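Aim 2 progress update. The chain analyzed this quarter is reproduced below.
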Amino acid sequence: MPTTTHVRPWSDADGNVIEADEVPSGTKITFKGRNNRLVVAPSARLGRLEVVFDCDNGVVEVGPSSGVPALMATMRVGQDARVVIGANVSTTGTVAISAVEGVEVRIGDDVMMAEQVQIRADDGHPIFDVRTGRRVNPARSISIGAHVWLGFRSSMLGGATIGDGSVIGLGAVVKGRIPNNCIAAGVPARVVRRDVAWERPHLSLVKPYYKPDASTVTTSAYWAPTAQPDRPSARRRVRAWGGRVLRRLGLRR
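Predicted structure tokens:
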């Protein structure tokens, strides 16, 4: 079970490889299986990074970063699973990421994560239906769009999809679809405000120290109204309602 404490070009006889320039960081990379791959962009900024490849054919890709805090994360990567992290992804503390059973965790560009964020595509252990024996908690991929802010102790569970420009509130648990440019909060997370945009300048660390409107920041490319959910047209809804009435009257099968 080879372990390396450096992110730099490396390989072993089992086909495990690290593709990276020398990156100064507190790292620990452990390969328990075969044909796993860690790819780190040359200009990536890493803090504490711990990756465990438990099985075979796992992939972790970390994009470049500039002008944002370092990425700090612990990752568990299982059989055939992938973790893909975009450019300028930052954290204010160590976050946890888990992917197994061939699923993918994808994090877009310019994502900002507070400390103790959890991104878990799996539950770690299987749960079965006692009558059928079938698995009830399969691993599911997670997709986090670009310029998303994940608040302190928020959790993204298997199947979570978050659109560009959105904010996930403190302690929220995301298990479904959150659209773009909105605020989602609660357990499970629900949209509480639409048509919002956020920017990185800190309220007390970056002048001006009062920021009452958008003129006080440089706006990014992620300002957009929240997309409306797909809904059937009024005509389709009326037609469906009429069909149900006719069936109840025995006039239509």
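The longest strand covers residues 46-53. The mean pLDDT is 91. These observations will guide the mutagenesis experiments scheduled for the next reporting period.
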